[in-house]
Amino acid sequence: MTDLETKKLLGALAANWQAEMEGFYTYTALAKKETDDPHRRNALRGLATAEKHHADRWAGRIRELGGPEPEYTGNLSGHADSLANRIGGADLALRRLEIDEGRDIAKYGKQLKLLGDHSSVAILQEVIADEREHYQTLGALIRSRGTLPPLPPQQVQAALDDLVAARDKGHTHAAGWVGDAIYGVNDGLGSIFGIVSGVSGATLGNSHFVLIAGLAGVVASALSMGSGAYLAAKSEREIYEAEFAREREAVEDNEAEAREVLSLSYQIRGLPEADAVHFVQHLAKDKSQLIRELARERLNTTEDGLSKPLVSAVSGALSTAIGAFIPIVPFFFMTGIPAVIVAAIVSLIAHFVVGAAKSLITIRSWWASGFEMTWIGALEGVVTFIIGIGLGRISGAQ
After folding, report:
1. For residue range 204-260, what is the model confidence (pLDDT) as tens digits?
2. Of 350, 353, 331, 349, the residue nearest 340 (C-alpha)
3. Rounded CA gap, 368 and 271, in Å?
4. What's the predicted TM-score (pTM) here?
5. Long-range contacts for 106-111 (Cβ within 8 Å, ≥24 apart)?
6. pLDDT tens-digit profile of 153-189?
7. Which domains does the chain carry?
8. Contact of 322 with 185, CB cutoff 8 Å
């Protein structure tokens, strides 16, 4: 093992030690506060002892690797005296600890594949087995007092955020082929209108040069948009497949945490806790169904909702070509400044129509969206026309 690998391993082990010590102090403080139920107090003391044992195991391995003696930097009461726990009381504190234990199981499960150290992996296997018992113990303690009050929405959201913090953030959902088509027309119209305006300014509307530049731009824009739409849709599908595989692995490594994530998601939407738990239990009877639901929650889509790469490519390319062709049409029949004026009018009308059409897939009003695209197109045309005039004078093209 290289020095860099050893340093990285020691960092991971030190973090594990810190987490176990924090658990030790948390359970110890909660046990001291438990005065009504001797059984629960003894159980909490047992959990604290187990956490301390885990910490000792990590400290021993750190010493074996020649690392520095770890120092605890947290609160001596762990999380027991946090504001959320003081407000929620002992029962909700145990609920949060149950979630933490599930998260720890998932974290250690990932480390099994990452640490690359046989002795550390052996400790991990022992710790994971104990953490699973802790999860069950906490569940029994929570349910021994009957039904708990539901977590407030803010606390449910915080718990869910904690559980999925290690995962990638959700991905934007691509519009369907209609969206690809509208944005394709938008892109083609805007880019070629700029080219036509610039070349017209440089050549005073010489249709020969405008048509050459415009047609070349049509082909380039259409191919660019088509390939871009294809790759975007393909990447979206690959991301979904990767997320599905990750959720499958998460369920296999720690099904309890996966159920908790899904249950909290439903609670945030307003489903009562008991109903959310019951529904998740029903889903979990079929693991593939549970995995699909988790993936849907992560990406806010299903496999059926994904764009088809070929459809996106064709719609994007054709719509871009159509939009790009509009500004050059007058130059097939006219030349000079009249052609420039007609092309500008036709293009600005097309800008308004396309902008209004965007309201089909947005929440804006059609006239506001159309007007916005029109003035942006007009500004683009004026700027590129002026630049074209300047370039034409410099190069002597006029």
Report:
1. 778 888 889 889 988 988 888 888 878 888 887 887 777 777 777 777 777 787 787
2. 331
3. 38
4. 0.42
5. 106/166, 106/250, 106/253, 106/254, 106/257, 107/166, 108/16, 109/253, 109/254, 110/253, 111/12, 111/16
6. 444 545 555 555 544 444 444 345 555 667 677 777 7
7. 1-149 (1.20.1260.10), 177-240+307-395 (no CATH)
8. yes
